[in-house]
Amino acid sequence: MMQVLPIQTDVPTKESTSPGRLIVLTGPSGVGKGTLMQELLKRHPELYYSVSATTRSPRPGEINGENYYFTSRSKFEQLVSQGEFLEWAEFAGNYYGTPREAVLNQVQSGKLVVLEIELKGARQIRASFPGVFSIFILPPSLSELESRIRGRAQDSEEAIARRLKSAEAEIQAAEEFDVQIVNDDLENALQSIESTLFR
């Protein structure tokens, strides 16, 4: 299921030689953004994925510099004060941010650059980059989202409650974005993303 709103007509095609473009993928925690991003990059290695920095601890199997740049709060705050982030936000007690220089360099070199970020950061990017193309990933329902978060077995009851409360508020913001895609089936959601990026 996908709802496509009016968007700019210069969405690049795979063969495009036009200037680079910044693409934002966002949605509530547990909606499957990370899994969709991994599969999208497997299918389209021409995309440049911007690795975010975070102060949260690595989850099992996560690799520093590949999934995230894992750093301390003090180091993150130092980078914020130096203007090193394109956007940053605090979510669920941890900081997340997008390194500025690498993203701008890749866009200027003609790449499609994809950011997988939280809602607050996505809004910051939209405010500072009018040409950004933004995709909001929705869960099929809040009960399904809760099942996915619980299925990860990584959060306390308190953290789960906090994530679900945030998710309810975030879902209200979906219509701010160019495209909304419901992740009820991984393959269908991936095809919907591809159809919006590579028309």
UniProtKB/TrEMBL annotation:
Gene3D superfamilies: Guanylate Kinase phosphate binding domain, P-loop containing nucleotide triphosphate hydrolases. It is an enzyme of class 2 (transferase). Residues 1-20 are annotated as: Disordered. The keyword Cytoplasm applies. Pfam families: Guanylate_kin. It is found in: Cytoplasm. Its EC number is 2.7.4.8. Residues 20-198 form the Guanylate kinase-like domain. ATP binds at residues 27-34. GO terms for molecular function: GMP kinase activity. InterPro entries: GK/Ca_channel_bsu (IPR008145), Guanylate_kin-like_dom (IPR008144), Guanylate_kinase (IPR017665), Guanylate_kinase_CS (IPR020590), P-loop_NTPase (IPR027417). Residues 10-19 have a biased composition (Polar residues). Keywords: ATP-binding, Cytoplasm, Kinase, Nucleotide-binding, Transferase. The keyword Signal does not apply. It catalyses: GMP + ATP = GDP + ADP. It comes from the Bacteria. Signal peptide: none annotated. NCBIfam families: guanyl_kin. Belongs to the guanylate kinase family. Essential for recycling GMP and indirectly, cGMP. This is Guanylate kinase. It comes from Nodularia harveyana UHCC-0300.
